[in-house]
Amino acid sequence: MMSKLLLLCFLFFLSCSHLLLSSCFSFSNSTKICPHGQSLALLHLKKSFSIEKSYSNYFKYYHLPNYPKTEYWKEGSDCCSWDGVSCDLVTGHVIELDLSWSWLSGTIHSNSTLFRFPHLQRLNLAFNDFSGSSVSAGFGRFSSLTHLNLSESGFSGLISPEISHLSNLVSFDLSRNWDVEFAPHGFENLSDYGRFPDNDIHLLKLELLYLWGNSNLSGNFPRFSENNSLIHLYLSFINFSGELPTSIGNLKSLQTLSLIECQFSGSIPASLENLTQITYLNFYYNHFSGKIPNVFYNLRNLISLELSRNNFNGQIPPSIGNLTNLRVLDFSDNQLEGAIPSSVYGFSSLSHVRLQYNLFNGTIPSWLYTLPSLVELDLSHNKFTGHIGEFQFDSLESIDLSMNELHGSIPTSIFELVNFSSLCLSSNNLSGVLETSKFEKLINLKDLDLSNNMLSLTMSVHSNSMLPNIQTLDLSHNNISGIFSWNVGKDTLVYMNLSYNSISGFEMLPWKSMQILDLHCNLLQGPLPTPPNSPFFFSVSHNKLSGELSPLICKASSMGVLDLSHNNLGGMLPHCLGNFSNDLSILNLRRNQFHGIIPQTFLKGNSFRTLDFNSNQLEGLVPRSLIICKELEVLNLGNNKINDTFPHWLGALPKLQVLVLRSNQFHGHIGVPKIKSPFMSLRIIDLAHNDFEDDLPEMYLRSLKATMNIDEGNMTRKYMGDHNYQDSVMVTIKGLEIEFVKILNTFTTIDFSSNKFQGVIPECIGNLNSLRGLNLSHNYLTGYIPLSFKILKMLESLDLSSNKLSGRIPQELTSLTFLEVLNLSQNHLIGFIPQGSQFQTFGNDSYYGNPGLCGFPLSKRCTTDEIQYPSQEIEAKFESGFNWKITLMGCGVPTLRDLLLGTLQVGPTHRISCQVPTGLSFRLRESSNPGSKGLL
């Protein structure tokens, strides 16, 4: 009976509950719970902003939903049902406002109706444009706020101190507001006018703090008390200073610490070992130094450890072996040394190992070949030796072992890595015969770089269908010979470098998408292979190609660099060569056998930066249409048969830096400029071996501003050109022609030798005080050596030989402490040879043919009347920019030696890693005129 009574009571309770719930749902569906005042405040907030639909294109990059939420806010409807608005179901108060990604634009003023929602618990205004808005005092009124997100919304100016009132804050995101600064006493004295404080932060509930990307913030790393709750701390891209404090060990709940590019210095504190919950630790690109502390024994939760681009030294700490959950290990770009620890076990999850750009040596440890989850392995730019071992798992997608001292053959397991997308083994000592058929399984390979080794290649008949996704292929500086028939990647290959091999020809050049094709320094013979229509860079320099240049070359309408130099090509140049591509910036036809005239038509708006026709048999006039080549920096017409007067109109080209007209049939007076301030950028000019006559062109010399007052201490030293191509210049010193394969932006020289100039040397040459080389030899110059030459403090080579100069050698020339080459021979100079400084280093050949000279180093002693007492010797530290010691090199030698001004290289460019080589080379030969010392 009792049980029946209980059952009836239970059924009655269910019935009542059902009626009550039905009544409640009926009420909620028919009654607005949003107070009228809140609706009005939200509608007013909506009107204070405009909608920028153009933001939708920007937000597509993030692949996140974005739309104008406020456009769906309608008067008369329940605001609690509006997009981005959430209310308390009991009171109706707005407790959450999410307007992120809403295309909003406008300013949030201090009296905005945004601040009329005192019960807000979550506020998200991220990814809008509130430029001109500050984090004002109104934000401090949200006393119940737990989550505040103002990221990437254009806030600027001082952050109000009232922000410190948000004692319930759990998550605060102010990232990527580039111009915000903390006001004094803000965030519990978090800062002092944009600076982080030295005292503690007391937001005890704060778990997530995002301040990264605010470059105006500076100061020291904030201190946190021991009872903090922080789990995620992102402070990257802030201008911190000083060291990490030991108080960082108080962040015992921390899982994420990101301090990328923060300018920290000093060592990492040992208290880091207290962060036992840490999973993500990133100190990339700071100035940390010293040894990496051995603090990882208890950090077993660590998944990602990135310490790259710092100044750490010493060895890898042994406690690294305890990080059994590690997936990413990045110690790249430091000064770490020694061997990688060999006794490491349990890295079953390690997927990315980056140790490149260090000083590691020894062999690659065996455990790196047995990691089951390894995806990326980069040990490049170290000093590893020995053989490359066999990889045990096929998870690898990328291997870079370049710039080491590894030897032996490429392991067979490499060709079983079916997930491979990138393989770089360049600049080692690898050898052996590589069969193209081995690449059959590498269907995902996109980038292959085996350059700078000693590999040869055997090409299979059926290998052309392999590597269907290959995009870059670099086999330069190897031992590949014969006909190259490996036509892989016909539709996908965009970069191929086969330079510095012994390839004699191609079956075809079938690549449809090729952008960079570098074949220079091989043994190519026969006619020029017609390049595909697509390449931007095409170089076949330093080969043995012959025949004429076909007009089909002009179909390559996107060509930017065309280098056919140092071949045996002949015939007349196609008329289209000057106007077939608006993108063509480099045209180098040096050292061929072309004859006829230079193409006379150049496109208006062309991109020509370098035109090099040196050492051909071209004749006629300099094309007047060159005047429209406004980007032209280098014009080299030397060693041809051009019969013209001085092209004074070239002085209007605003960027022209190098002009070489030597060894032609130029003639007549240079005269006076036709325009004001011609050749303002010119710093290398070579008119040697022509028939110019009359006085030296004083007015032109006065205009050479680029050879005056170069402040080398405050300028960035760089070479002419870019990563695709760098210009070269030929100089003649003591009868030897030397091709410098790079031109430093401080290199300045004038060569007017072997002409018919007469009259005196203008004093104004002394104004060219940044001049490095001056050659006026083999003319008919008279008068004295100008005293103004003492101003040429940077001068390193001076040749006034074979003229009719008279008088004494100015004692003031001993102040030219950089002077390494001096030739005053075959003149009518008299008197005592100055002594001191560089003059002590010059031999007899600097003065022979001047019977009136006496004193060291000549055997003729001076009489009392001839003795000229030297002025006080000017002591200066000798730091010559030129080094005339030359290392002879040929096309097949892949090393660099000798620098001009400390950096200019004499020799072929060394291919390093995966960059495009310059295609330039070095050649040394006897000059046809041993007395000339000029520039070619």
Please characterize this protein's 3D structure.
With 936 residues, the chain is mainly beta. 6% of the residues lie in helices and 24% in strands. It contains five helices and 66 strands. The strands form ten sheets. It has a 30-stranded mixed beta sheet, with no helix packed on it. Strands 18-20-22-24-26-28-30-32-34 form a nine-stranded parallel beta sheet, with no helix packed on it. The chain starts with a helix and ends in a 10-residue tail after the last strand. The N terminus and C terminus are likely disordered.
Helix and strand content put the structural class at: mainly beta
Number of helices: 5
The total strand number stands at 66
Distance between the termini: 122 Å
Residue share in helices? under 10%
**Shape verdict:** globular
- The low-confidence runs, each spanning 5 or more residues with pLDDT under 50, are 1-30, 185-194, 869-936
Largest sheet, in brief, is: 30 strands, mixed
- Strand fraction equals 15-25%
Give me the Rg, rounded.
37 Å
Mean pLDDT: 86
Give a short synopsis of this structure.
The protein has 936 residues and is mainly β. It has a 30-stranded mixed sheet, with no helix packed on it. A nine-stranded parallel sheet has the order 18-20-22-24-26-28-30-32-34, with no helix packed on it. Strands 52-54-58-60-62-64-65 form a seven-stranded parallel sheet, with no helix packed on it. It is 6% helix and 24% strand.
Would you spell out the secondary-structure blueprint of this structure?
Elements: H1 2-30, H2 36-47, E1 50-51, H3 55-59, E2 85-87, E3 94-98, E4 104-105, E5 122-124, E6 147-149, E7 156-159, E8 171-173, E9 179-182, H4 186-189, E10 195-196, E11 200-201, E12 208-210, E13 218-219, E14 223-224, E15 232-234, E16 239-240, E17 256-258, E18 265-266, E19 280-282, E20 287-291, E21 304-306, E22 311-314, E23 328-330, E24 335-338, E25 352-354, E26 359-362, E27 376-378, E28 383-386, E29 398-400, E30 405-408, E31 422-424, E32 429-435, E33 447-449, E34 454-458, E35 472-474, E36 481-484, E37 495-497, E38 502-506, E39 516-518, E40 525-526, E41 537-539, E42 544-548, E43 561-563, E44 568-572, E45 586-588, E46 593-597, E47 610-612, E48 617-620, E49 634-636, E50 641-642, E51 658-660, E52 667-669, E53 684-686, E54 691-695, H5 698-702, E55 729-733, E56 736-740, E57 749-751, E58 756-760, E59 773-775, E60 780-783, E61 797-799, E62 804-807, E63 821-823, E64 828-832, E65 852-854, E66 924-926
Parallel strand pairs: 3-5, 5-6, 6-8, 7-9, 8-12, 10-13, 11-14, 12-15, 13-16, 15-17, 17-19, 18-20, 19-21, 20-22, 21-23, 22-24, 23-25, 24-26, 25-27, 26-28, 27-29, 28-30, 29-31, 30-32, 31-33, 32-34, 33-35, 35-37, 36-38, 37-39, 39-41, 40-42, 41-43, 42-44, 43-45, 44-46, 45-47, 46-48, 47-49, 48-50, ...
Antiparallel strand pairs: 1-4, 2-3, 55-56, 56-66
